[in-house]
Amino acid sequence: MRVAFQGERGAYSEEAVVARWGAAAEPVPCPYLDSVFDAVEGGGAEVGLVPVENTIEGSVLRTFDLLYERSLSAQGETILRVRHCLVANPGVELGDVRVVYSHPQALGQSRAYLEGLGAELVATHDTAGSVRMIKERGLMEAAAVASRRAAEHHGMAVLAEGIETHRENYTRFLVVGRGDSPPTGNDKTSVAFITRHEPGALARALNVLAEAGVNMTKIESRPQPGRPWQYIFFVDLEGHREAANVRAALDQLGGCTVSLKLLGSYPAAYFSYFSGLLRP
Q1: In sequence order, which ranges of 2-118 are alpha helices (DSSP H)?
Q2: CA distance readout (Å), 56 to 19, 229, 269
Q3: Catalytic amino acids?
Q4: Fewer CB within 10 A of the terminal residue: the chain, N end or C end?
């Protein structure tokens, strides 16, 4: 099965693909998140795997925009423990590093270590791509924040490992494709809605969920294009859209909002704070 992901070989998204599907997946690298959706919509991949939030740096906002704008639905989720490495050309020592390149999320997740290093931080499009770049340019005063997988793929040296600010550094990914998944008994439903621009509109919408006994696990707001200072609300709910209480809540939610888009129902990844990810 072809699975599109954002980044180059060795990216954390590729690692998440392998963690979820193993040898059954053929990872398809894409330069941008938009390209992942393009690949699936155009038939270049059966599904895509896109990051949606990180426990240190928060939501990946472009993913929310694409879920709202595009035709694909969320079909599943995967949680990856992210362990950052400082990667450099062979022969480079830690004291040589003057510049560190990586994706903004990776730089942010490793902020405490990198500030102690005293190097200039330069944002790039991809973690693994940063490793490739410093290798191709032969940079001997530079390093990249990336995975051990990326270092091994490019034959690079790992100067330090586990440099993330918090050990509890996890990224949640969504599987995106056509259609959603049948109920499993342990599901989530993701929706996006726009409320009327009036006092109490959001409170009324959220109260619908409470009255139906539906637990909300996440809420995020994004600007509504063309409507300054008005917002689209993204909400994750416990339960499948076919469950009686979720179905009733969605029916009522549709009646008290300007628009409502179902982004998908899918099996929830089981996660324990104390033991980490137990299964996808």
Answers
A1: 12-21, 33-41, 61-69, 104-109, 111-117
A2: 21, 27, 19
A3: 171, 173
A4: N
3-state SS, 118-184, equals CCEEEECCCHHHHHHHHHHCCCCCEEEEECHHHHHHHCCEEEEECCCCCCCCEEEEEEEECCCCCCC
What are 154's strand-pairing partners? Answer: none
pLDDT digits (tens, 9 = 90+) for 225-248: 888 999 999 999 999 999 999 999
124 is written with which tokens?
A: 């790039």
How open is the CA angle 239-244-248, to the nearest 5 degrees? 100
pTM listed for this prediction: 0.88
Note whether 2-82+169-179 and 187-271 share their fold.
Answer: no
Return the CATH fold of 187-271.
Alpha-Beta Plaits (3.30.70)
Q: Which CATH number fits domain 2-82+169-179: 3.40.630.30, 3.40.190.10, 3.40.50.360, 3.30.2130.10?
A: 3.40.190.10
Residue listed under structure tokens 């895509």: 48
**pLDDT means per 10 residues in the chain (280 residues)?**
94 94 96 97 97 93 96 96 96 96 95 94 94 97 96 96 92 94 95 94 95 95 92 97 96 94 93 46
User: What secondary structure letter does DSSP report for 134?
Assistant: H
Beta strands at 187-194 and 231-238: parallel, antiparallel or unpaired: antiparallel
Domain formed by 85-161, architecture: 3-Layer(aba) Sandwich (3.40)
The domain segmentation of the chain, as residue ranges, is 2-82+169-179, 85-161, 187-271
